[in-house]
Q: What sequence folds into this?
């Protein structure tokens, strides 16, 4: 009887240790994943996600892929800031998003401005193409380029979705954003106002 009690006690201790191990392993995984996929500029993202009817997870995914949240980033092609907008695109977007202020290229280094116009760009592209993969391709390669791809039956059979993405850079870009999107969607739950509701 004593041996049975001792065996049961050992079993209970082992189960408790296993459960504690699973708990800490899961929380450790969550911790490191959230370090790899952080949230930044949360108030601005929540505001612009709501204004443009966007999933915040998509905004964070684009920012992570474009600049890894570096507001001072500038590409070889001259794209600037968190969401890597080119001066030409920024100028065009200013005609779509009316403001009393006329911004300069330097203003793209300001996170609030960059995110506002980057979100507007994503919103316009999703409205134009309705397909997320196609819209992201246009964000990277340009609207004119994607329009020409959609007219090519070897690239798009229905003229709306891309069966393949000819540019390797754009293909890798889209894959990266969608991979990041899956991670952000899994790690965080955003409420209807675009705010993270799980801390």
A:
């Amino acid at each position: 009887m004593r041996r049975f009690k001792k065996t049961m006690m050992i079993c209970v201790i082992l189960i408790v240790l296993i459960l504690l191990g699973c708990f800490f392993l899961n929380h450790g995984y969550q911790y490191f994943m959230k370090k790899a996929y952080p949230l930044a500029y949360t108030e601005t993202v929540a505001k612009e996600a709501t204004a443009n009817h966007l999933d915040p997870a998509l905004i964070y995914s684009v920012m992570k892929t474009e600049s890894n949240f570096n507001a001072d980033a500038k590409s070889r092609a001259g794209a600037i800031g968190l969401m890597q907008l080119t001066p030409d695109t920024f100028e065009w977007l200013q005609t779509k998003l009316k403001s009393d202020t006329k911004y300069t290229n330097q203003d793209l280094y300001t996170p609030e401005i960059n995110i506002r116009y980057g979100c507007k760009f994503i919103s316009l592209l999703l409205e134009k193409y309705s397909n997320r993969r196609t819209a992201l391709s246009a964000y990277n390669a340009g609207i004119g380029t994607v329009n020409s791809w959609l007219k090519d039956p070897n690239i798009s059979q229905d003229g709306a979705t891309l069966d393949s993405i000819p540019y390797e850079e754009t293909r890798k870009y889209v894959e990266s954003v969608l991979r990041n999107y899956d991670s952000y969607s899994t790690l965080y739950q955003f409420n209807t106002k675009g705010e993270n509701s799980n801390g």
